[in-house]
From TrEMBL:
Residues covered by the Calcineurin-like phosphoesterase domain: 266-491
Record domain Purple acid phosphatase C-terminal: where: 509-578
UniProt name for this protein: Purple acid phosphatase
CDD domains attached to this UniProt entry: MPP_PAPs
Lineage top rank: taxon: Eukaryota
EC numbers: 3.1.3.2
Species this protein is from: Camelina sativa
Pfam families: Metallophos, Metallophos_C, Pur_ac_phosph_N
Subunit structure: Homodimer.
Catalytic activity: a phosphate monoester + H2O = an alcohol + phosphate
First-tier enzyme category under EC: hydrolase
Transmembrane domains' residue ranges: 619-641
Amino acid sequence: MIVNFSFFFLLLLLFISVFASSANAKATVSISPKALNRSGDTVVIQWSGVDSPSDLDWLGLYSPPESPSDHFIGYKFLNESSTWKSGFGSISLPLTNLRSNYTFRIFRWSESEIDMKHQDHDQNPLPGTKHLLAESEQLSFGSGGVGKPEQIHLSFTDKVNTMRVMFVAGDGEERFVRYGEEKDLLGNSAAARGMRYEREHMCDSPANSTIGWRDPGWIYDTVMKNLNNGVRYYYQVGSESKGWSEIRSFIARDAYSEETVAFMFGDMGCATPYTTFIRTQDESIATVKWILRDIEALGEKPALISHIGDISYARGYSWVWDEFFAQIEPIASKVPYHVCIGNHEYDFPTQPWKPDWAATTYGTDGGGECGVPYSLKFNMPGNSSEPTGMKAPPTRNLYYSYDMGSVHFLYISTETNFVKGGSQYEFIKRDLETVNRQKTPFVVVQGHRPMYTTSNEVRDTMIRQKMVEHLEPLFVDNNVTLALWGHVHRYERFCPISNNTCGKQWPGSPVHLVIGMAGQDWQPIWQPRPNHPDVPIFPQPEQSMYRTGEFGYTRLVANKEKLTVSFVGNHDGEVHDTVEMLASGEVISGSKESTKIPSLKTVSASATLIRKSESNTLWYVKGAGLMVAGVVLGFIIGFFTRGKKSSSGNRWIPVKNEET
């Protein structure tokens, strides 16, 4: 009897020992590889030993590694791995070089700890950091992670035979561009000027907070000179001591060419492979993909890109600018990338120009950046600038112009003073009055907030009225051909219009297009019309010739006889609307002719159609809306079981809005 008792006692001790060992097992996180070469390379994060796994267990990304737990770059829920219920799994993430190392941390988060006062931009609860389970070792970007140049982008200068190139590196040591007409003989070189901005230059939070601020690195700027017209040049940036970028190429502007090709859009933003404090723009991936297709199809023809405001949507979270430039580098390193300022780059409570009639319009959309990253990361032609009234340097890249082929392009700022008596008004007036219409018969004006829209954007009503009062007479008197606007995240084309009345020709009645459909996915309803109570609820006013909630971009193709603008939809990469403006003044609406770029190769839509599941099966829709207040469990289920976007078949991908 004693023997049996001893035997069972030993079994009990063994059971307790095994149970205790299992209960005390620590979770672990590992990464492979431990160093990446450049932005876009993928790391695999693996974990194991997560006891009693929960839907709310999550993985945080941190850079620099010593960041506090609530200062993450972004996060992923462990349940995105198919094996998460077994306490182990893996997630693959493409990462952007932030010029500091990364670490990855796993946290336990319970339903009782959800804090509805601690929310992201879309009012979703941010994950809690009270229970840290494990942290990985550090991930670096190799020996050249700090010094190797990235985020390369081009732009025009005021001289036709030049091309500006800008890039970012982690230190301020001397860098250069070397370039030439042969890939293996880059015989020309120019030194690059390095500059940077600091946290103290930001005007408000989150840009000047410890959560939003990250070191932006050094921004380099230089110009390639004495370029031959229409010739392909090869170039690379960097230095012998710190390393060189890959060799890129571009086609120099041709002062004698009558052809113009441009890709134009607004409000694109960027996508991230993780959820962060603000909404990011998954559809921007498709926009960049289709534009890259079009650029490569051009062969030896020059082109340009216009991004008319709301550039990265960083809104004070500085690493989003790094994500944006990494995403556009494949196109911005091939053709000049031109911008104008939007509310999400600039607006801040104490901005210098805020008239009484715009008091509710200009607010905090800039996230405290007050135009600083925009002003230093880009360098557009001209020398326009306005003081911020803060420690920040003056805001630049506000208004400027240049010629390409048969088109004169003018960029304006709707965020700073544009009314009579201001410096911008005088610039616009002088610029439009001095256009050489023999050389450039077509004039295209671009700005962020629209002068015309049928979207129910009531907050901007007074701005539109002031634009009609002060700017439209300049457009009409100087025969502007086309006015392009962003801000409203839809595509809409108006008739030739002046004073809200359709004309028959574009001289005296410019054609207006709203092209803010490149990525951002929130938009209010179309403007209701109370005198039309029947279905459809929001009938299209006669001034609006075409409008849609589809994502995409526009192509502009011109010679001295005709300017054609085509809307390309992201769901299939095909043209869905076209308007032609002839030099004679005639406007041909909805023509399907001349929608192809000269020398554009035929590409099967099915061969290049972008599907979210193919680009990255782990990228989830951002920003699920709040459910009924107080029904916490229902909210949790709705938030944590968000579905993937569907892009099967050639179906429109609608903008999120009140109609749907």
